Amino acid sequence: MTSVGPVATGEYPSVDEERVTMDPERAHDDAGPTNDAGSVPGADGSAPLRLWGGRFAGGPAEALARLSVSVQFDWRLAPYDLLASRSHARVLHRAGLLDAGELAAMLKALDDLSDAVTQGRFRPTVEDEDVHTALERGLLENLGALGGKLRAGRSRNDQVATDLRLYLRDHARQVAGRLTELSSALVTLAEQHVDTPAPGMTHLQHAQPISFGHQLLAHVQAFVRDVDRLRDWDRRASVSALGAGALAGSSLPLDPAGVAAELGFDRAFANSLDAVSDRDFAAEFLFAAALTGVHLSRLGEEIVLWTTREFGWVELDDAFATGSSIMPQKKNPDIAELARGKSGRLIGALTALLTTLKGLPLAYDRDLQEDKEPVFDAVDTLLVVLPAMTGMVATMRVRRERLERAAPDGFALATDVAEYLVRNGVVFREAHEAVGQLVAWCVAHDAELDDVSAEDLAVINPLLTADVRSVLSVRGALEARSAPGGTAPDRVRDQIRDLAPVLDRDRAWAGN
Ligand code: ARG
Question: Where does the UniProt annotation locate this protein (predicted)?
Fold first, then answer.
C-alpha cells in the first residue's frame, strides 16, 4: 500500500497550543475568535479561511468555534490528506478540469506544502477548523486562486474517511511490526527455556509441571493472532472513499477506482452514502487494539507475579524496572503494570467509538469527528507500550533453579500418577479417587508424593502399587506430554520451528 513512511507521534509539527486552546487573553489580543463583524480574524488580521462561509452573514460564535475545532488532533492526518490531494489533482486533470500547466503547478504546490508541513514551516492555527481547512489555506497562500480548484468534486466527508483509512493502514503495520518484535523476544527467551520445568497453573494454583518455554510461547500465539487480525482487518479497510463527495457521489467525471489504486487501496467504495458514514474500519481496528491490550495486560500481570518475592521466577533488568521514592530497596515492574493499566484505555477507546456510532443516521454526521481521538490514542498507546514490553522481556533474567524447584510443588505430579494407573487398566474415576486419598495423606503428614513409602501407599489405597513411584519425576511428566501442542520439550521445539516462518511473514507485512 501507499505509505507516507513512519509517522509516529511527534514527528509532525504540532498545532500551536496557545491558539488551539483559544486562550481567552490571547484571543482578545489578536481580536481572535469572536462573533462580531462576522469574522474570526487570523493572526495577520485578515479573515480566516472557512470552507463554508458563503451563505452565512456572520462568522461562527466563539463557543461554536471552540467546540468545532479538530485541527489540534486531526493535524496528524496532514501527510495523508496531502497524498490524497495529489491523487485528486490528477483525477481533476484527467477529467479535463485542470489543464496540464495547472496540474503541474498544483502538484508542485502540494509537494512544497508537504515539505513545509514535515519541516514545521507550515503550521495549523486555531482558526483552521480542521486539517483540511489548514491545508487548503496553505495551498491558497502558495497558489492563489488556482488553489481553490482542488476542492471540486471533493468534500471533507470523503476526504476525512479516506485520510483516516490511510493513516490506520500505515499505523496498523507499525503496530504489527512492534508486536512481531515482542513475539521475537519471547521466542528467544523460550528457546533458552524449552527444558526448564516450571509450575503450570490453573486458578493460579499449581496444576501440572510445564516447560517454561511453553508458557512464554502461549503469549506468542496470542500476539501472532493479533497480527493476523490486523492483516485480516486490512483487507476490509482497503477501500477508498474519494469520489463519494459529501454523500451522493459527483456529477464530475471523476475516477474513484483510479484514485483508489493510486493510494494503494484495493478498491473504491461501492456506495457513496456508506463511504462517508462507515467507520467499521475504525471500530474494528480498535477492537484489534483492545484485544492486543488485553493480551499485553495478561502478560504484564504474569510478569508482575513472577517478579514478586513470593514467586521469584524472574528478575527485571535495572533499565526496565523502577524504584521507589521512599523505599530504597524497591524494584518495581512498572512497565508490566502500565501495560496492564493501559489496556483499560484501549477498551475505553473501542467503547467510546461504538457508542458514538450507535444510532447515527446516514450519511455523514458531525459526531463522526469523534472517531479520531480514540483511534489516535489507541495507536499511540500501543506504540509506546509494545517497545517497553519488548525491552523488558528481552532483558529479564529467568531464575531457572527457582522454577525447577517449584515445578513439582503442590502435588503437581498427581495427574501423572492417576494416568499411570489408567495405563495399567484402572478406571480413571477410581484412579482419581485413589490419588486424591494419596494427596490427602501427604497433606496430613506434611509429605511430598515421592516421600510416601510402598507400605504406606498400599495402606492408603490398594490400587497404589509401589511402581507408581516411577512416574514421580518432573522431567518424566514433561516428556510424557508429547502429543502435538503439548508441553514436552520436543513439541515445544516444534512450536518454535513453526513460528519462525509466521514471524517472518508478519515482519514482511509490517514492512520491517
Ligand atoms: N473535521 C471533520 C471530521 O473529522 C471533517 C468533516 C467535516 N464535514 C462536515 N460536513 N462538516 O469529521
Answer: Cytoplasm
Pocket test residue of 130, 132, 163, 371 for ligand 1, highest count of atoms within 8 A of CB:
130
Residues of the chain with pLDDT under 70: 1-46
DSSP code, position 322: B
Helix (H, G, I), strand (E, B) or coil at 202: strand
* Angle between helix 131-143 and 156-192 (nearest 10): 120
Residue 445 appears among annotated catalytic residues? no
Does residue 130's CB lie within 6 angstroms of at least one atom of ligand 1? yes
- Segments making up each domain of the chain, as ranges: 17-31+58-152, 158-406, 414-472
Question: Closest ligand 1 atom, CA of 246?
Answer: 10
**All 3 cell numbers of residue 118?**
514535515
Q: What is the per-residue pLDDT for 25?
A: 38
Q: Ligand 1 within 6 A of 369 CB?
A: yes
Nearest atom within ligand 1 for CA of residue 368: 12
Residue 45 is predicted with a pLDDT of 52
Q: Which fold has domain 414-472?
A: Ribonucleotide Reductase Protein R1; domain 1 (1.10.40)
Q: Residues near 258 by Cβ (< 8 Å), separated by ≥ 6?
A: 91, 94
Whole-number pLDDT of residue 9: 40
